Amino acid sequence: MAAERLVVIGGDAAGMSAASQARRFKGPDELEIVAFERGDYASYSACGIPYWVGGDVERLDDLVARTPEEHRARAIDLRMRTEAVRIDTEGRRVLARDLDAGTESWTEYDKLVIATGARPVRPSLPGIDAPGVHGVQTLGDGEAMIETLARTDGGRAVVVGAGYIGVEMAEALLKRGYEVTVLHRDEQPMATLDPDMGRLVHEAMDGLGITTVGGAAVSEILTGDDGRVRAVVTDDAEYPADVVVLGIGVRPETALAEAAGLPLGPHRGLLTDLSMRVRGHDDIWAGGDCVEVLDLVTGTTRHIALGTHANKHGQIIGANVGGDYGTFPGVVGTAVSKVCDREIARTGLREKDARAAGLQYVSATIESTGTAGYLPGAPLMTVKMLAERRSGRLLGVQIVGGVGAAKRVDIAAVALTARMTVEQMTALDLGYAPPFSPVWDPVLVAARKATAAVRKAGW
Predict the structure, then answer these.
(1) Which CATH class is domain 4-42+55-119+251-321?
(2) Which Gene3D superfamilies match (predicted)?
């Protein structure tokens, strides 16, 4: 009997995790695997690009988990610089274009995995494509930026956007000796936090010498006589720039799937069932940044572009394609970042998320130290906790603080997944020793305060 053929569109985290996992279950005589990747690199850590730019990671190769040659050695036919341009679901085939040769050919499939990722938001502005303006999405983007920095005489950088990538790139450029200005539309940086917590990030960035400008809508990027970027213009001011980084966010890359008639959600991501199979299509799976996932707190779908999810999706898809079984139940929206020594974390809902979901809530904010307060240099942190007003169910946690602050959010992520109340959290048996925590961990102190707020609100 002839081997089945699995076609994978996308050669990064979700796609190649799926291909590799499927190969563990079925050998080449049972399953032929063909993968298309339009870029120059596969199986790499895009999350590491800011740290490569900033000099913490020395070489591009350090960010590559597995080379195309290593995939091919495992009988995965990974075709680089090959872009899928059409999916024919009726004919069960994919049209792919060799970007170097310019030729196109059809490849039939028995099973298909769509892992096309996300595309960075790139507004249509005058000068947006000028030399010196960079996105940070792929290893190629990082490579181009490092080349620009190496040949740029000036030392002024403007980062547009103050989300995770924007904040991390601001730190990377600061480490390289640049004078950094961050422009963003919101009241405070890190709009994934409530404004009162974002203000703490703002203060930390100011303390590092990073100029942060809120409510700044970019209208134009100016160029010099040489055609290179020279300034970024907002409605209120002009900011000189020798290099510009776009960190405005990403959207699911689903144009190919939409053209094939596959179902998309409200955030334009592909919709799948718990096994990551595309709804209504038995032999098509999708994972990574191109899909929407279930929010376990609100019960709605959302789009979250994170490598952790993409790798899990790939593992689950590969197991199901290979004849085993796996499901992805959903997420609670956990993310961590940092700007120099200030750590930033969130999980669950912000206040505006809770309101949008129709949830009444109470909030509690506390300040504490990450170690016993009597130890020299005990790092400070602020913890904000949201709980449902009547039930006391935990809804969300945000943390900003020094060393050891961010990963404490994992306590809250587990509690959210288990649908614990804030009162139940107060009894959690967490590890304690003076170098690691006060007697009452800051997360538990916040839970105690949130419990009191729930009771006061009429539990």
Answers:
(1) alpha beta
(2) FAD/NAD(P)-binding domain
| Token couple for 310 | 């993409």
Answer CATH for 122-248 from 3.40.250.10, 3.50.50.60, 3.40.50.300, 3.30.160.390: 3.50.50.60
How many Å apart are CA 336 and CA 154, to the nearest integer? 32
Active site residues: 47
Q: Where in the chain is the domain with CATH 3.30.390.30?
A: 342-456
Residue 409: name the closest of 306, 314, 332 by CA: 332
pLDDT < 70: residue spans in the chain: 1, 459
Give residue 177's region: left, alpha or beta (phi > 0; psi -120 to 50): left
Q: Which two tokens stand for residue 271?
A: 């919709």
Report angle CA 176, 178, 182 to the nearest 5 degrees. Answer: 115
pLDDT at 229 (0 to 100): 94
Single pTM value for the model:
0.94
* Mean pLDDT computed over every residue of the chain: 95
Side chain identity, residue 254 = T
Give the integer Cα–Cα distance in Å for 28 and 40: 25
